[in-house]
Amino acid sequence: MRSRNCLAVALMALLVPVGAQAAGCSAGSSYALVLHGGYLDYEEEVTPAHRQLLQRLLVEGKAGLAAGGTALDAVSTAIRAMEDSGLLDAGKGSIVNTEGFTETDASIMDGATGRSGAVAAMQRVRNPILASRIVMEHTRHVLLVGATGEQSLRGLGAEMVDPATWYQEFVPPPKPVERKHGTVGAAALDRCGHLAAGTSTGGWPGKLPGRVGDSPIIGASTYADTRVALSATGVGEYFIKRAATRDIAMRVQYLGQPLKAATDHVVKTLIGKEDKAEGAVIALGVDGEVVVSSNGYGILWGAAQSGHEPVLGTREPGAGAPGITLR
Ligand code: ASP
Fold first, then answer.
1. Which of 74, 89, 205, 287 has a CA-to-CA distance to 172 between 20 and 30 Å?
2. Closest ligand 1 atom, CA of 213?
3. Nearest residue by C-alpha to atom 9 in ligand 1
4. 128 CB near ligand 1 (under 6 Å)
5. Ligand 1 test: best mutation among 79, 88, 180, 201, most atoms within 8 Å of CB?
């Protein structure tokens, strides 16, 4: 009985509103937002529309953080816009599976509290990232899946769409490139010094109905704690098997590895060299350090940090690149 009461208290604690964390932040604290639009095989996968979208979201996200917005809001607002853009493999632009219909996955994590929420194999939810946040903030659970999960989410106020008219599987660029990626993700640091991360995807082309990738798995694709915030893209099966983003965070926490070294080890050595699988990760440290690591050509990424102009890239930034570290 006693343990059941303890459980009830713990579950109530999970439901504390997120906005509470904004109080008491120092006006002078640094802040940052890092976005990604998926692993890249070729530069040609990136169009001017992609760059404009990320640039706009970085400017807006930076303004929100400067005004005292939370890291969680910065992450969910940016990912929601990328989902609605139809330009990337997430939300409206999600790819179709082998049976020709779309199933989406997403997750979000609050580094300050460890609270997290996720959805998988969604067909009708308009914004998987917002649905993930509903799971985190309004249920006792971490992950809701499939049609019955969507029924629960509908009851909790998630916006639904008609799949027949909503999805517009993203159109490959005119060049002969096999466009395979476009998962989106974000990591943010707010003026309270809190971190958050999120990821959203339609998955991989050729995926079977019911397949769930790494994007809704906390510790595989999305992870945030008091030191780091991470979002991954690539062949999700390997990120799940490696518990990839959790591994990076634990390398930083337990081994004291620098964020760049920890991220590169998991992305390039473990998933790249050992597994021979494609993937990339964006990482943001609590000191404002931005890390971008890819074991292929690159990743579409952008970063906006206090005191710096937003920067966009398609490959890993070189060491000491301007605007990449606040230290
Ligand atoms: N990681 C995603 C998945 O496996 C796909 C991607 O990032 O391109 O579902």
1. 74
2. 9
3. 203
4. no
5. 201
Q: Annotated catalytic sites, by residue?
A: 183
pTM recorded for the entire structure: 0.90
Atom of ligand 1 at shortest range from CA of 105: 9
Q: Cβ(203) to ligand 1 under 6 A?
A: yes
User: What stretches in the chain show pLDDT beneath 70?
Assistant: 1-28, 170-181, 318-327
Give me the residue spans of the domains in the chain: 30-96+161-205+214-322
Asked if the 30-96+161-205+214-322 domain carries CATH number 2.102.10.10, the reply is no
Residue given tokens 């620098």 in the structure block: 258
- Residue 127's Cβ-count burial label (10 Å; 0-12, 13-18, 19+) is buried
Residue 116 CA to its chain's centroid (Å): 12
Nearest-atom number in ligand 1 for the CA of 236 is: 4
Give 312 Cα–ligand 1 centroid separation in angstroms: 21
- Tell me which residue has its CA closest to atom 7 in ligand 1: 233
Predicted confidence at residue 11, as pLDDT, reads 41
- Alpha-carbon distance values, 153 to 34, 72, 276, 312 (Å): 28, 19, 37, 35
pLDDT of 179: 54
| One-letter amino acid for residue 87 of the chain | L
Q: Which tens digit of pLDDT belongs to each residue from 201-247? A: 999 888 999 999 999 999 999 999 999 999 999 999 999 999 999 99
Q: What is the pLDDT of residues 20-34, one digit of tens each?
A: 344 456 666 899 999
